[in-house]
């Protein structure tokens, strides 16, 4: 079930970061229901008001993603003061930081069945409540063991929240807004990271036994607002249909649709989709013994998920103060101020990605992203190495460190950061998408946790410069991977995408968009 939730919103993510694609995906197109004389008509919410309502619901549902971003960002500064106060070892620091990815994966696996039983809306509330409990325990933790207990609870809450929100947003959003609204969780994660960095800077001046507790306790505030959210947002219409509450689903759709006709059409599509349920066992059998076409899809999807984390983004976000200290920044206030600049870069460039992804295409942005990351990592590693040898002035090394770290998160945010899930949701056929994207998400979280939990040990073994040299090599391999294994999927139908992976006859590697338009037109006319 966790895999299903991981991709529950994934099947609706081809337009994830921008305008809706002009080409319909053939596996997502449902035949129109014949008009039923007995159907009760409902009045649509009206274009402007319904869109504002859906926008507000999507913002509220994404608040749990602020918690994930805040936890990631704030821990980079907290760890400095926790080490001083609780006298934890370097290995304990790695475990405290890195366990979040593994624990959030467990929460995500639990989110599927939970949201099916109690509903998407109340699962969002449950996620916030579990996180609040964990954050409260961490805030008052007298020892490392108690701190880890709170961290585990907070991780489970975050895992539940980050999986159910995209599903909820995709299920209430009309097709014309789905692409833009589905990008909200990624934006809110970046915003949460920035808030965590700012919290570090603001509260760093408090005594060492208090400041990190205030930083962690401040993370409870966004989750408290979820109580208000639950009074405002409606339940998912798809879940209501699954519970045989079609009347309630129709009432919700009336609020989030532009017209009476659209609401009725969406209800018919949801009811049809609920009747046609794919076999989990058949999907897993096909993934475990894939055909050549599915194998190539898995190589592409899993490879992008792996390289997104293996290039070291979580090491940089969690341990940026360590990196800046190694470059020559000495005071804690300066270290934390430099991390705030990193947070601003991440937020700014994720917005740019939203604008560009459907206009420029997936593969060009991946090229820009992976090449840019490789250059930044190589320059950072070289500057730290030269500084250690005394061949580079301290002021120059500090400037290069800040520039390259900010450049890293900028290139990450404009390409491989948001595009990995977009690409994964586009390349798999509907019958396999939930399970395949779920596998990719699990691989992504395990790679993230592995990097975060081993970074300090690697630095101790080969220096910080050596660690980033290794990340630069991995990033260079990601450029080669994109060139060899990632096709351009933007604007393609399922038939087009399967042909790109060898599932059909193609004459020139990729099918031109004009041909795609004619194929789509022919299909619509003949049906």
Automatic annotation (TrEMBL):
Keywords of the record: Coiled coil, Membrane, Sugar transport, Symport, Transmembrane, Transmembrane helix, Transport
Membrane found in the keyword field: yes
GO molecular function, one term: symporter activity
Name assigned to this protein: Major facilitator superfamily (MFS) profile domain-containing protein
Bilayer disposition of the protein: Multi-pass membrane protein
Database matches in Gene3D superfamilies: MFS general substrate transporter like domains
UniProt cross-references to InterPro entries, sorted A to Z: MFS_dom, MFS_sugar_transport-like, MFS_trans_sf, Myo-inositol_Transporter, Sugar/inositol_transpt, Sugar_transporter_CS
Keyword Glycoprotein set for record: no
Protein localization: Membrane
Family: Belongs to the major facilitator superfamily. Sugar transporter (TC 2.A.1.1) family.
Pfam families membership: Sugar_tr
Transmembrane annotation, as ranges: 53-83, 95-112, 124-146, 152-169, 181-206, 212-233, 335-357, 364-388, 394-416, 436-458, 464-486
Signal peptide (from-to): none
GO CC, alphabetical: membrane
Alphabetical list of PROSITE patterns matching this protein: MFS, SUGAR_TRANSPORT_1, SUGAR_TRANSPORT_2
SUPFAM superfamilies (UniProt xref): MFS general substrate transporter (SSF103473)
UniProt feature coiled coil, ranges: 253-280
Domain (Major facilitator superfamily (MFS) profile) ranges: 57-490
Organism of derivation: Panicum hallii var. hallii
